[in-house]
Amino acid sequence: MAVKFCGGCNPRYDRRAALETLQAALPGLCFRPARPGQPAQALLVLCGCTARCADLTGLDAPLQVMVCGPGDLPGAVQRLGASIGKE
Fold it and tell me: Which domain of life is it from (predicted)?
């Protein structure tokens, strides 16, 4: 699971805490920083606000999940869990 944080120019919630919540909810996934040119099963993008302006250039994954606030976490858990066969 590749993880991309936005630039943080307008964070409206604690993105690090959101990642920790997802890691706790999905212990079967290995989270690593997203790197251009390194394919991943899924890409988790933690945006600080609803602008969704994170630069995804060179990042490739069949599943991309955007989190723009705490309200997006349950859906992210469901989508990412389904990517590893768990819900």
Answer: Bacteria
Residues 15, 37: Cα–Cα separation, whole Å: 24
Q: Is the alpha carbon torsion for 39, 43, 46, 47 positive or negative?
A: positive
Residue 4 and residue 35: Cα distance in Å, rounded?
Answer: 8
| Whole-number pLDDT of residue 86 | 43
Name residue, tokens 């858990």.
Answer: 77
Whether 41 and 82 have beta carbons less than 8 Å apart is answered as: no
Q: Where are the domains of the chain?
A: 2-83
> What are the start-end ranges of the E strands in the chain?
2-5, 32-33, 42-46, 63-67
Which of the four pLDDT bands, split at 50, 70 and 90, describes residue 87? very low
pTM for the model stands at 0.90
